[in-house]
Amino acid sequence: MPYRFSPEEYLNMALCYSDAGEIMLRAQQLYEERYGRVVNIRTILGAVQRFRESGSFQPRAESGRPRHPVRLEEDVLDFFQRHPVASTVDAARMFGVSQYYVWRLLRNEGLHPFHFTRVQELLPQDYAPRVEFCRWLLRNRSYNVLWTDECTFTREGIFNVHNAHYWCDYNPRVIRPDHFQHRISVNVWAGLLNGHLLGPVFLDRLNTETYMELLQRDLPELLLNVPVWSRRYMYFMHDGAPAHFSLRVRAYLDEAFQGRWIGRGSVIRWPPRSPDLTPMDFHVWGRAKDLVYGNDGHTIRTVEQLRARIVSAFDVMSSEPEVLSAVRRHCIERARQCVRQQGRHVQHLM
User: Fold this and answer.
1) DSSP result, 332-346
2) Confidence class of residue 143 from pLDDT cuts 50, 70 and 90?
3) For residue range 214-240, what is the model confidence (pLDDT) as tens digits?
4) Chain-centre distance of CA 182, in angstroms?
5) pLDDT for res 340
């Protein structure tokens, strides 16, 4: 017969749990040091949970009946059906039960907490241009599209506090610098053509002068590394940024590409607010920032360090041709989904 602890012993377990900073492994070690008795972690956890739920350490008598009536379970499940964004804490407070009970009920019913997908806001008038462009892309998918875009990198990088952990058997109180007095930022242009990554090209700022210089000087040099057959039938794409829409830029593109460019003011219009349709947004920049910042992105101190990391990241991505080729197929699938969704968001479906 398993050993039954007394209420005083359960209280000592709870006190050890509190003194250990609510770290279960340390609570187990602390109890063994103080009282010379080995105790299972689940025993300590059960004592703490019973006290939080009922104010008593005494285990409930086994009756063979469910702890909560079936009607209560149905009410909790109905609550989440009507309020799918509610939390387990909200439900526990509303129905007067423990959060653990709500969580276990949802899990047993096969319900899981899924994260939202962040998307660009679309206006009703955006749907038709998105469908029109995607249909053009699907009709002409045998042609090469040079997808281009600009992005700003800073020393702060990307840091999600919910996904960052420091594993230890006690709280080491680690810190991570986040807001810096000395700000560093770098503007980068890049392109993707049929599995070939072009760039990075660093821009001091994006305006008509710097963009024209990029188109006339940097782009022809970058295209020398691309097979002739890819360049011959190439469509040049850029979004609707103000520098892209200037008269000089549009006149140059009309002459250089002769109706084979995509953007605002072209015969092939780029739909506004559509970063989800270009592989530069849904692949290149995310992959580049993962490589640039990694686990120690906060150690970037100078512009030179940031630029060096960006160049290194593009070297890594260029060495992954099978991934870049798959991105083109993925872009076609996004276009299909956009047509099926009548121009609405597609990120959450991919």
Assistant:
1) HHHHHHHHHTTT---
2) low
3) 999 999 999 998 988 888 889 999 999
4) 27
5) 93
pLDDT band at 172; cut points 50, 70, 90: low
Place of tokens 């103080």: 34
Please provide the DSSP assignment of 211-263 as one string: HHHIIIIIHHHHHTTS-HHHHHTEEEE----GGGGSHHHHHHHHHHHTT-EES
Q: Which residue has the higher pLDDT, 119 or 129?
A: 129
Longest dimension (CA), the chain: 90
Distances (CA, A) of 44 to 50, 104, 236: 10, 19, 65
The Cα–Cα gap between 305 and 307 comes to 6
How far, in Å, are 92, 167, 226 from residue 173 at the CA level? 31, 11, 51
List of residues 6+ apart from 198 with CB closer than 8 A: 146, 148, 190, 191, 192, 219, 222, 223, 225, 226
Sequence letter at residue 214: L
Instruction: Specify the 3-state DSSP secondary structure of 67.
Output: coil
CA nearest neighbour of 262 among 237, 232, 234 = 237
CA dist 154 and 187 (Å) reads 9
Band of residue 69 on the pLDDT scale cut at 50, 70, 90: confident
- Number of H helices and number of E strands within the chain? 15, 5
Around Cβ 323, how many Cβ atoms within 10 Å? 12
Q: Which of 146, 196, 190 is nearest to 324 (CA)?
A: 196
The residues near 206 (Cβ < 8 Å, ≥ 6 apart) are: 150, 187, 241, 243
Whether the CB-CB separation of 306 and 108 falls below 8 Å is answered with no
The single residue listed with the structure tokens 């279960």 is 24
What does the alpha-carbon distance between residue 102 and residue 87 come to, in Å, rounded to a whole number? Answer: 10
Query: What mean pLDDT do residues 151-164 have?
Result: 62
Rounded-to-integer distance, Cα 272 and Cα 278, Å: 12
Task: Extract the tokens encoding 204.
Answer: 């001091």
Could you tell me whether strands 185-193 and 196-203 are parallel, antiparallel, or unpaired per DSSP bridges?
antiparallel
Mean pLDDT of 173-198: 76
- Per CATH, the number for 124-349 is 3.30.420.10
